[in-house]
Amino acid sequence: QVQLVESGGGLLQAGGSLRLSCAASGRTFSMYGTGWFRQAPGKEREFVAAIRRSGVGTYYADSVKGRFTISRDNAKNTVYLQMNSLKPEDTAVYYCAAQSSLTTDRAYTNRDSYDYWGQGTQVTVSS
Q: Is 89 helix (H, G, I), strand (E, B) or coil?
């Protein structure tokens, strides 16, 4: 099993940047594919970005492509989400998720594929 703790959220103006971190417990974090999801008030939790276990292979939602970058440092058991050119519509609670059995591209982008979730961190972007 793995436990996930997100950090780095905050309040900022549109156009700004923020980096979220997801720290994982356990020595086998490198065996877990990891994703970021977000949930805005009144909306379903949606896929944002994901990264394969090795760090080679990333996925992005169309709405964040070109603005967000996911990366991981397996030596530090941490996954990052660099968010640039933030927009008010990026406002949401951001969740980190992990799963060891991810194989297909579709699995990485599907929230139902993930068993392990963090508690979330709030990102608020004002116009």
A: helix
Our CA dihedral for 97, 99, 103, 106, rounded to 10 degrees, sits at -30
List the one residue out of 36, 46, 52, 38 whose CA is nearest residue 101. Answer: 52
Distance CA 65, CA 112 (A): 22
As given in the structure block, the two tokens for residue 117 are 């979730």
Q: What's the DSSP call for residue 94?
A: E
Phi, psi angle pair for 119, to nearest 5°: -85, -15
pLDDT in tens, 1-59: 899 999 999 999 999 999 999 999 977 888 999 999 999 999 999 999 999 998 889 99
